[in-house]
Amino acid sequence: MRDHRLRLALFAAVAPLTAVLAIVPLVRGRGRAAGMAMPFRPGETLVYQVGWMSMSEALTARLKVMPRLDFYGDPAWHFQAVAHSEDPLRYVLAIDDQFDSYAGARSLATRQYELYLDEQGKQSAQKLSLNSRHPGTEMVSAPAGTRDPLAALYALRANNWQRTPQLLSPVFDGKHFYRMFAHIVAGHDSVAVPAGTFDASRIAVSVSSRRLSEPMNFTIWLANNAARTPVEVDADIPVGTVKGELLRIE
Description:
This protein has 250 residues and is mainly β. 10% of the residues lie in helices and 52% in strands. The chain has a 13-stranded mixed beta sheet with strand order 7-6-5-4-3-2-1-13-12-11-10-9-8, covered by helices on one side.
């Protein structure tokens, strides 16, 4: 996808807040997520439909929590997301991408991030290790606590927004770093998506960098259930409006 901001936005909606939600509690309650029980479990699979501009079903995406594993001597989570463009977008932009994240079991900070892109018949693969050297990967120097898009989403779910209402963090999407500020706007919104109607907390997110002339703004709704399920994300950015909605839980 030639416009990197478009992939950023589309994948953000695909995996509610992927490349735009590396949330690390740096403003209040620093590191609090490390001591909390995670609301997600291995085997959880969430399926989303993503609309872009006038196309209400531009992409479908599946997010899965893989079995936990030992990652070079440390316990880690393995998160995976796959995204496919649908008609009519597929006629002009064929997307079949996969993203894998390996994140520390307690902190959810990224250890390794992998991108397997298949767009318009052109395939590419990247394996990026943050602040460490692993065989077959490219090392990336990143600020402490940086999370990739997938680890960011799950870190967001691990946060207790009633106790930590404002969060600030760097985020790395595989190519660029961003500064992100997030805060809770409402504790109880009724959100209707294809998977059903949910009582959800509304989180506003602003993403900025020196590369962007103005911040990108997102809104994500997390269900007020034990899993803190991401049910919807909306974005209004320079390349258009994007909406991701939970289709089903498998």
